[in-house]
């Protein structure tokens, strides 16, 4: 599944970047103090986790002398997309067996939208990977009872990180809560599992809420009262479009 996903995602990965991808590159190659001052403590806190991942990646490739081409810029997103296909397979295999896992993985793999998202230097595939891991951890923990309590830790951490990767993850987490309530309301084995783990579910929900409060407060308190979007930072696109290091005088990002 991973090999098939990689073949689909990495095919023709080096096409020209578009504006939002150039924004990702520009933000990740600016001096760290400027990033903190103008973005994370400014009017835009979305995708903060993605920038935390992309920045050291571009710095490492720059130190190694690898130019920030389109492929290099998109590689983390592509890898997240491949990993998501594997997690989808594992999740469906747990629920429906090996054949069900292959079918689910194949349906995901052939979804044109996910291939597009995996070929963008944005946080979409990181968000999807973390949310898929959260669902997998939730169902695994309910099925395995008290044998592996660390699934709760995986659930809490992946859910919270998903919000830091993309604020709209809160909507998916809300759907997760709704799904749990539906499972509890419909008589059957899942209802019994949910009721047996009610305390752990409530504690996990509380832990997730505590972890995402900081970014929620930042988003609410630091938003532009006029509702307008922050001004775009000065930047240039990767090296295939402009000379390497134009933004900061180096081939990679500067810490």
Description:
Helix 2 (about 20-30) crosses helix 4 (about 50-65) and helix 9 (about 170-185) packs across helix 10. The protein has helices spanning about 1-10, 20-30, 30-45, 50-65, 70-110, 110-120, 125-145, 150-165, 170-185, 190-195, 200-220. The protein contains eleven helices and no strands. The two termini are about 35 Å apart. The protein has about 260 residues and is an all-alpha fold. The chain has one domain (about 1-220).
Can you describe this structure in just a few lines?
With 255 residues, this protein is mainly alpha-helical. It has eleven helices and no strands. It has one domain (2-221).
